[in-house]
Design a protein that fits this description.
- With 472 residues, the chain is mainly α.
- It folds into 2 domains: 197 residues, no CATH class; 225 residues, no CATH class.
- The protein is 86% helix and 0% strand.
- The chain is built from 17 helices and no strands.
- The longest helix is centred in the last third of the chain and has 50 residues.
Length: 472
Amino acid sequence: MIKQYNLYSRLKRFSYESSLTLKLGLPVIIAHLLQILMQFVDTIMAGHVSSHDLAALAIATALYHPVFLLMLGILITLGPIIAQLFGAEKQQEIVTNVIQGLWLSQVFAFLSILILANLEPVLYWMGYEAEVIRIASHYLKALCWGIPFVLAFNVLRMFSEGLSITRPTMYISVIGLGVNIVSNYALMFGHFGFPAMGAVGAGWATSMVYLVMFCAMLAFCLKALIFENYRRFIVFRKPSWLYLREILRIGIPNGFGMAAEVGLFATISLLMGTFGVTAIAGHQIAINIASVTFMLPMGLSIVISIRVGQAKGRSDYKATRYSGYAGIILCVLIMAITATVFVNFPEMIVALYSDDPDVSTLAVQLLYMAAVFQLSDGMQVGALGALRGLKDTRVPFITNLVAYWGIGLPIAYLVGVYFYFGPVGMWVGLIVGLSIAAVLHSWRFQILTRRLLKHQDREKSIDNEVLQMLHD
């Protein structure tokens, strides 16, 4: 009877924690999916312009994303920083960190523009056609105008989400998608009096989207009643190394950790070229499907870091540990559902992408492989979110390097290329890398939270001894 009661109590607590995480996480997930939909719209519209425009867009975005994700990976660590300060009720410190984050975002914008606006020699070195290079370079230059706004938007987004206010990002992403569609229609195809610019027009349209989203988020932060207590602390502040150092200390390993994971998938995609066009197409379909489902735990991981950070800021270490573990389990359960869908309906899903029998057959095989790593992917990104909430990013970065590049990639090459198992063998490396990362990140969270609880118990013991001495 007691065991049944304990089980019921645990399930009830997990249900409550999960409902809070989902309530906060659902808007973040939708926002991520809407941003993927923007990229999908760009690709579809570019395909209706010309094959050169489509190829140029694919190449340009492949070069843009690693740079952008590195900068974004550093800035999103503002989320757990703000969450911990929110838990500790330090409103002035929160505003100061946001202002410093805005300064840092513009430094990163300058560095990003410096890189992306000067990639034409790299494109020539890679041997692409002159017309593709022209379109891709002009697309990147058009996109550069929006980078200061998108990075600043993400700082304000972390401010809002760090306070557990996640819906604005979703609503603003809906606005962004609408602006993206209309702007693409006008600038790519030459409507409403604009010249037809093809894929280059998509670059200008994306910059416009970034500007609109930033202005909308800024207006919300400056006008919404929920931020009224924070606005009284807004004063002009010069860049302060004291605050910037903390953001960079946590953010740089996080940014490179994200780059390590993205880099593994990008390298696997490049190695697929050694198996021919069918392998590339089948792999692209399967990886695209997996990337969409990955947005589910990815959105939740941001909320997990917020929940963990707020609990740690309150010095409630039991809640810190529970929020992290509940979030990780929730990510795994959600990915178990997607894995079940992959296993039971692979042909139906792949049919949405291709009717080529050879490509479809391979994509179905790879989708079965994707079903296997869904659980690992959910666990590793959930655990990363929990660790980020503790401001722990350096060890996870090293873990990612070892799991993905030290183990996952060599296994992918050995099984896929050396032992001739082909694309399916390459995906074995992905499964192994993600699984090792998942176990090690979860283990790291267990170690850190156990350490926090022991420290808390030791402090309580000392306090009790002091009180006893005073009583005696």
